[in-house]
Structures are given as C-alpha cells and as structure tokens.
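Subgroup meeting minutes
Present: P.N., E.W., G.H.
Scribe: E.W.

1. P.N. recapped why we're keeping a running log of single-chain structure predictions: easier to compare across weeks, and new members can see raw inputs and outputs side by side.
2. G.H. added today's entry (354 aa).
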Amino acid sequence: MKKDLKHQGIRNVAAVHWNLPTSALYEKIVSRQEGLIAHLGPVVVRTGAYTGRSPRDKFIVEEPTSSAQIHWGEENQPFTSEKFDLIHYRLLAYLQGKEIFVQDRHAGADRNYQMNVRVITAPAWQNLFARNMFLAPVGPGEPVHVGPDFTIISAPGFHAVPELDGTNSEAFIMVNFGKKLVLIGGTSYAGEIKKSMFTILNYYLPQQEVLSMHCSANQGRNGETALFFGLSGTGKTSLSADPERKLIGDDEHGWGKDGIFNFEGGCYAKAIRLSPKAEPEIYECTRKFGTILENVGIDLATRRLDLDDAGLTENTRAAYPITHLRNIVRSGVGDHPSHIFMLACDAFGVLPPI
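Output recorded in log:
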C-alpha cells in the first residue's frame, strides 16, 4: 500500500508513524506521557471529561450519495456539507507540525463484506486501541489492499466552537459517507472510534442483505452458534466469554447468507469490579501486555490496579485483542445461530419485538 496521506489532506506534520507494532506504540505512549504501564504490563490511560460515548455530539453529513438512505431524526442528526468542510479544514491545520499515528486495518471477518479502514490518531494510545479493536490487514501470502474504504481521524485536542461550527458542544463525531471520512475531536474516549466503524457498517451491510447486530456471539463444542443481544452493561461480554464455549466476538456482528461474522478483532470490556472468579477470562486480560485500560484506578507507587475504583467513572474499560483470550474462534465466523438470547436488564426493562 502506498504510504501517503495527501489524499486525506494531511500535510506538513512533524512525523507519520505507520502501523507501529504494540511494543513501539508502548514506547511512544510512555515517552509522550500519555499513559502509565501497570503491574504485569497493561497501559492505563485517562480520557478526561468524556468517559463514555456522547450521542448528542454525533452527526451524519447530509449529502447526495447517502441522504435518501438515512432515517433522519434525534439519533441520526444531520450536518451540512459546508459546516463539515470548515471544521475539516481547521482540523487539518491543527494537525500540522504534530506527530500522527496511522493503522491500516480491516472491519469484518467475512471476506465477502470486509472493509478496509485507516485510523489516523493524534494520541499514540488511540492508535494502539485501533490496532487492538480492528482486524489485521493481511496474512502470509495474501495481497495487500490498495487503500482504505473509509478513514477515521481522531484528534481529541482539537475542539469545536459550537457558535461557529453548529455543534452541540466542543466534542464532535461526524460521519461523511460521501467523502468516506469520519472526524472525531474534543473527546478522548476511544469507544467513539469503534462505534463510528459500527455506524459505517450499519449503513452499508443492510444494502447487501446483511443484518448488522449489536451482540456478542460464541460457539459450542459441536459448532452451534449463540447470540447475546443487549444494551451496554447487560452482560454480553461476560456471558459470551464462557470457558466452555469458543468466543466469536463480544460486541458487533453481521448475519449474512453464510452465517454470522465478527466485525472486530478485539474486545472492549467493562472493567469495573471485574472478578477473577466470576469473569476469569476477562479479568486475566486486564493483566496483560497490550491491553489498554481506560480510567481504571491505579496505585502510582506499586502500579497495581484497583478494578473496584469508580472514582473517575463506572464506565472503566479494557480494550484488548481477542487473541488475549484462549478459547476463541480465530476465523471470526460462525454458522447461522441456533440460540438467541435477549438480555433485558437495561434502562427500559422491555423486551424488543422479535
């Protein structure tokens, strides 16, 4: 792949770091004082004022190629192309003179529906997040893809001006299907990167007769597949990480004509009050090199974690590659599900229609 960011309008930066491995990103995280290395090797970071997703700050650009396909409303807030271009130009100016980090990855384990995604970040730790959460681009003997189908640019230090930009706050997440581009600013919460890609797949896959699903999935000994649907915090990740079953994925999947497939290459588990007895598989991942821990408590002297510490947020998170788990389906694909579980312990208490 040609290593060139001119297509994205990025010029005059101090340095571009392409597809750094985990160890090199660790070095950058520490040298740039973006995070701390905890006991046994995970890296602990802080996301500042935003410790969760900000749905009121997410917009979709209203443009000719996609506007007729989108159900506009409170969830899908429209944003004008003109306003998008203005904030885009200012963000590109903000990046000049800075080090930036790039990961070229895949979304979608099924090759028939796979998308190439380029994630460009100002913080090194968010680049490690992208490396953990999305799929590695190639294997031995496979061709390298020619370029990204979609690009995500995350610059948490760049803030919108609501009076000028037409945003609801200084934070913004903007999806432009016409330009195949996502802009994220004003928030360090890395979940916005992950969910932006989910939004993109939610748009494209149904047009290919694939159902995009917010669910976890695992596989029994005989290959039978189960899905677990539920809102954040209802237990999808915990229940699917069953030591007696193989994990396909913990959060986002597609269901096509050949079965189901994971969108991602990593897991983004809630870390608050994780128990080595109740969630042994996930708990162990909070103690491994390569894992990113967002807003988790840490003793600065001993570098030991306190997973019970909710001082910053209840929404503490662990982002790790799925290969940190022992019992997984490495291909990320499974048969048509034989069981579907609806986890109804949520804010509404009402099962969705089936």
